[in-house]
Amino acid sequence: MVNGDDNLPTEKNDYFVEKASFSDKPFWNLVQQMDSFFTQFFSHLDTHLLPNSLQMNTYETESEVIVEVALPGCKRNQIQLEIIGNRLRIQIEDSLQEEIKYETHTGRRQFYSRREHIVSLPFIIPEKEALTTFHKEVLRITIPKKDTQRRFLTISE
């Protein structure tokens, strides 16, 4: 039964809510363990079930930002890098077309895949100073932190 004024449950349901012991320590431990399990499970899900995801590592030093992307089975001519202001777009395209000749007919198989990722940086990417290498199926992009006008604010009390 629902109260017509504010769509809240009636007093009958309040009895069950009061009797349920949601604040018990064992219950909250169970909830936290389940939450931890699902968080860990879903954090690795994209690498196992989504083949279009890129395995990427981005880190910075005092003078540069380095982006490393693992591209197993990829060739250099499949990679396209594009600078759009302060964003770096990494795109990998793969396509296959082949004809298979049988005794009675000819079959055709086609495959196309496209993966991309955009890395945003807090400064404009200098195209001429950025270095890229592709060695042992790892794409490495080194971007110097040139003209970064980075300042920190003081927090007053």
Describe the structure.
The radius of gyration is 27 Å and the shape is flat. The chain has 2 helices and 7 strands; from the N terminus they run H-H-E-E-E-E-E-E-E. The protein has helices at residues 11-19, 25-49; strands spanning 55-60, 64-70, 79-84, 87-101, 106-120, 131-135, 138-144. Helix content is 22%, strand content 39%. With 157 residues, the chain is an alpha+beta fold.
Question: Total helix count?
Answer: 2
Nearest-integer average pLDDT: 78
How many strands appear in the DSSP assignment?
Answer: 7
What's the helix-strand series? HHEEEEEEE
**DSSP helix fraction:** 10-25%
Widest sheet: strand ordering: 1-2-7-6
* Form type: flat
Which residue ranges are poorly predicted, with pLDDT under 50 across at least 5 consecutive positions? Answer: none
Distance between the termini: 52 Å
Radius of gyration, in Å, reads 27 Å
The amount of beta strand, in percent, is: 35-45%
Q: Classify the secondary structure makeup into a structural class.
A: alpha+beta
Major beta sheet summary:
4 strands, antiparallel
